């Protein structure tokens, strides 16, 4: 898939056609959001009207229509190589991942128009390139409806959360089941944005704030980046929004309880966008406007956030890029990586929070006690905000991974994420660490198209593995995508490709035995004292199987040479330490 970045040619600015750039949001008195067709047509008009704007298409989606990318650059060049090599800071804004939450779709249009129609645009934003995905979940955007956002206050109609395959694209950044996600990841890798912003509308508790925000969890970023995330982005955005009379607060991560006694940060594992961008050392941000605020208010708040962000990025362009560079340098030297995290309830930040009074009353619908909020009664208090995560397990980084070519779905995803691999052409014997999958749990209900595994544990042993030429890719961990590959290739990681079912084939034993045949061989095996002792031990550890002949034969089968011990439960990605 090739990204078609084009260079718009403007031989004479005077020939530029000025289109009517009123948006659907404006023309409808702030009641409606642009449809996919209206939106793309508007962006084409903006491209026609401004030399700083290029509208391009990239990649496929599940619904069959292309994804679009708007590039805004004061230098007026839009080619992929020049964007990547430029010394400017690149912001990527992604809208309509959940098209029922369309605030960013309309805010982006106002944002871009105001920027590029400003006579001083070139002088004001010389160091920033802005890339905007107008609609990411195109299938969902086309699936317009009046009502699927049960708690949301407008617009009159909007798209649906699931994409054409009913996938939630904000759970798809690692597994990439959708074409949308595969196209996105390729674009993300090609563009390598320094800053990523994704726009949403929140569910959950009620409170007076219109805007809440999430960011790549600072504890998961390396130090120079986490300092910039909190010191430049978070404090800068809070101050700018406050100055605009639009105070905001961290995403209120609560469902079914009120914020009175505090709340905890959201753990953005890599399946979510800000967790995914963190793996590539990009600063990830999310806006979550409050569902009960009017659509017009939410769009304007999202616009303020975008304006604040671009001003911050322009002002701190160099420190932002330096922090990223330092993060990549630190990554090279880092040998141990946390794989999973949990909220640290032993530390918190005092958060001044403005809330609505929560109370319980008897529900007219169910007759049961129900939590409500009184919007006429506000309180302001300092509440604990549990904003830190602590690692729950860590892994030492190997020098190389060996990834079997036959697991093609994994290879494709590694390539999309910029992982360089070299096929081992000749037969080779390699000393490796090999994982055996010990235990794991599997969800009873499908989650995003998967019977997802969790609580995965492994044991590791050293082995000399003989590989046929062309069978394995050698993957050095000394590359920019080091952290990404560790989190997807280490089976115990919460978003590992093992846990997302990409390696389920190894969990099934392929060959079995007929008991009446193997029985005789088993009896001979038991002539060996060690085998007999092992069977005794097995029975004492599993007393319920004392009278179960087949279970005892199976135990012996697994000790025999017939058992596929180099395949069954053996994780086929090996580590060279
Ligand atoms: Zn959302």
Structure characterization notes:
This protein is 31% helix and 25% strand. With 577 residues, it is α/β, with parallel strands linked by helices. The chain has an 8-stranded mixed sheet, with helices on both faces. A 4-stranded antiparallel sheet has the order 15-18-14-19, with no helix packed on it. Strands 8-12-11 form a 3-stranded mixed sheet, with no helix packed on it. The longest helix is centred in the middle third of the chain and has 21 residues, at 223-243. The protein starts with 23 loop residues before the first helix and ends with a strand. Mean pLDDT is 95; it is low at 1-14.
Q: Can you give me a brief rundown of this structure?
A:
It contains 16 helices and 19 strands. By secondary structure, the chain is an alpha/beta fold.
Topology:
Elements (H helix, E strand, L loop, with lengths): L23 H4 L8 H14 L3 E6 L8 E7 L6 H6 L3 E6 L8 H14 L4 H4 L3 E6 L4 H5 L36 H13 L3 E8 L8 E5 L7 H21 L4 E3 L12 E2 L8 H7 L3 E8 L4 H21 L1 H17 L2 E8 L5 E14 L6 E18 L2 E8 L3 E5 L3 H9 L5 E2 L4 E15 L10 E15 L4 E5 L5 H8 L25 H11 L3 H13 L7 H11 L14 E3 L1
Parallel strand pairs: 3-4, 3-5, 5-9, 6-7, 8-12
Antiparallel strand pairs: 1-2, 2-4, 6-9, 10-13, 11-12, 14-18, 14-19, 15-18, 16-17
Helix pairs in contact: 2-4, 4-10, 8-10, 8-11, 14-16, 15-16
The chain binds zinc ion (ZN).
Zinc ion binds next to loops.
